[in-house]
Amino acid sequence: MTQGRFDRWRAPYAADPAASRGRLYPEPTSPTRSEFQRDRDRIIHATAFRRLKHKTQVFVFHEGDHYRTRLTHTIEVSQIARALARALGLDEDLAEALALSHDLGHTPFGHTGEDALDECMAPYGGFDHNAQALRVVTRLEKRYADFDGLNLTWETLEGLVKHNGPLVDAAGQPTERYRKRGVPGPILEYNARQDLGLDTHAGGEAQCAAIADDIAYDAHDIDDGLRAGLFELEALRAVPFLAELLDEIDARWPGLERSRVIHELGRRIITRFVEDGIREGERRLAALAPADADAIRRAPEATVCFTPAMADADRAIKGFLFPNMYRAPSVVAVRTQADQVVRDLFGRFFADPALMPGEWHEGLDAADEARRARRVADYIAGMTDGYALTEHRRLFDATPELR
Predict the structure, then answer these.
(1) Contact by Cβ (8 Å): 373, 117
(2) Which InterPro entries match (predicted)?
(3) How does pLDDT run across 154-198, given as a tens digit for each residue?
(4) What is the per-residue pLDDT across 333-352, written as a single tens digit (0 to 9) for each?
């Protein structure tokens, strides 16, 4: 069966699965799937992917079946990333694989868990969910007889690490995002084994996944916040972009019931951002005229992104959500409790690693605190919200209800 079976319209600057830079551990090609399809399938079947179902996006896991989890968010990002990649002539399967894997390194309890674990790990290099996702797919998943991790292609690993842009500049110095603390150790450690080109942008498919993440966040956090009663529709008019969309809905369907207004608003947010990303991507691609995927990587700025006006709208939405949702009193109260759960678990496991299952504490050197801390962080980061609470109840006399 030839590679042509997998071909669809693909621009010269798209990642070509037939010309992949390969896997760390060479494997025979598949007669039925492209290399990027295989990556996508391995991610979907990973244990860490299944756990996303029970990891919080913003609300805790038991607050309601209709709020987003990491898994539903990931599926929404995947759909948007594929739409962007298809329109721009990029490889849809690679864009989907990157969208499906981008949150594999997240802790229980949303960003609260990450912040708490980062502080616990501060003496040992900190904790970064992108770096943790890389550890998951290159080390922590243990499914194959020949290697640890999922043995994904170079293109998928590169996009996973660099979807938000270069990590170092041409001189090897950390970019702005990592200037204060340096590039996370797990990324540098893996990069020493397989060079991911940390000083360049990722390919176009990873850039699609990155803006798809922003689009999904903006749309579904507004939806979740409205349904949770954290703010009302009229409050959204403080954001001009959202006010315009609400006016469109009111003009076409006067008196439309609230639940349908919320759905219409979400649809319009996604549509406007996707169409803007496609138009701006097309404009930048035309100006750059990249002959291949590497030309996108070498470009001085991102190629798939929003126009300045839509980037402003994105910032305005996030500026609204931060105080009205992420820092709403009811959410902060739960975040405070969740923060303590993670800190308690880290402290107890670090002091006595034998409290973790055998495979997590075996082989640890009591004198190697950094390795012990990283092992504890790996264990906690892999927990679902419910399992973290179960472990806390096992080890402590009182566990917060997270309500």
Answers:
(1) no
(2) dGTPase, dGTPase-like, dNTPase_2, HD/PDEase_dom, HD_domain, PHydrolase_assoc_dom
(3) 999 999 999 999 999 999 999 999 999 999 999 999 999 999 999
(4) 989 999 999 999 999 999 99
Q: Cβ distance 249 to 256 under 8 Å?
A: yes
Q: Is residue 38 a contact partner of residue 30, using CB atoms and an 8 Å limit?
A: yes
Are residues 287 and 339 both part of a single domain?
Answer: no
> How many separate domains does the chain show?
3
Paired strand residues for 275:
none
What are 323's two structure tokens?
Answer: 């105080």
DSSP states of 359-375 as a string? HHHTT--TT-HHHHHHH
Tell me whether residue 383 is in a domain.
Answer: yes
Task: Answer whether residue 262 is part of any domain.
Answer: yes
Closest CA to 89 of 34, 12, 145, 202: 12
Domain, as residue range, for 59: 33-191
> Does residue 45 sit in the same domain as residue 94?
yes
- How far is it, in rounded angstroms, from Cα 12 to Cα 20? 14
Token pair, residue 381, equals: 């980061």
- Measured between alpha carbons, how far is 157 from 138 in angstroms, rounded to an integer? 9
55 with 155, same domain: the answer is: yes
Map tokens 């893996």 to a residue. 190
- Could you give the maximum distance between any two Cα atoms of the chain, in Å? 69
3-state secondary structure (DSSP) of residue 285: helix
Q: Which tokens belong to 332?
A: 């902060």
Alpha-carbon dihedral 134, 140, 141, 144, rounded to 10 degrees: 110
Cα–Cα distance measured from residue 337 to residue 72, given in angstroms and rounded to the nearest whole number:
24
